[in-house]
Amino acid sequence: MPNVGSRAHYVIKEGRGHRVFYSQWGGDDIELDLIPGPDAALRFMERQHAPQDWVDEVMCDGAALLDRDERRLLWFVFCRDDSAYRAAVLRVLERTWAGWRIEWAYNGLADLLAALGEDTEQVRAPRGIPVPEDLRTPEEFMAAMPGFTFNPEIYPPGSQLPATLPLGPFRIEEFTEADASGSPRLVTVRSGGEVRAYASSSGAATIIENGLRALDTLATWTPVARLARMPISGVHLDADARTAGVWTGRVLYQEPLRSADAWPGWKWEVWGDDFAEQLRRTEGVVDVPEPDVSAALDRLGTRFEEHQKGGGAAASGITTLLTVTSALRGAAANNGLEAQVNDDNAFLHRPMDLTAEECAAVDAAIADSR
Hints:
single chain, alpha/beta, Nucleotidyltransferase, domain 5, 5-stranded mixed sheet, 12 strands
């Protein structure tokens, strides 16, 4: 599958079988295609492309499994990195999917495969980059790939690179005003009987992947006493008791299980999306505002309306691709050439086809969710 787009998988499970579908542009807006309810969601899914394989878990921006026999919806999306918006979506789904069990896929695409009885390792993201034999030093590699840099403490100049460069763990980043468009991640640490709180822009899975090094990184940050808005995920590290917990409104990619070796002697708990579990352990050291779900419902209503008019991530992405490919063809023609553009996969998306009555029902569900 190509890397461009906002990738989504959809699964319809019925009887002893299931069908898998794919959209190159449906991931960012998957909640807008689910809130009309199961009948409309089923129609939408069946309009999408039947892929030959799965994208990997990191490349998948959203996914939904509709189990018709169990009346179960298992799904995830990043919900604009906005905890209030996610809460608004879940409220509406409770109304439009009445009688169905709605569950969040905390491990992302892997949870959908597990529900199908398939091996989750087939969607695990690559953990390394193969190093070509003619690029064996950092200098040679960076000369061939100018956007790539090496930490000289790990890969000194002139040193021999390994056959495979490990991907991650990525550095944990502190949340700053430059990150104002997204929600922070709350990290709390108990050490020496004292609790400190920090705001991070890195996901919970990244923090866990760093292992005990995370404690050293956090110790260099400035503690916070208040967050400007509700976090989208959180990690609590009790260095005194060697216990930890994590909750999220996004996905964990099977952490902390995958990084257990990076936390020797520690016991981890996963709290789903229960933010209160973290707060109960922080002794009031940080003030967190309640999410403004009413305002988020307004945003959801606006986005749904735009989505029905052909706006949103899918239309924007496809328009950009059409502009780029048109420019390429034009440039080639000006030079007496013909550009051959393979855009089959890049345009894999079929929009929702709601009736006026179905749209009105969504509007009513949003209004009733206040």
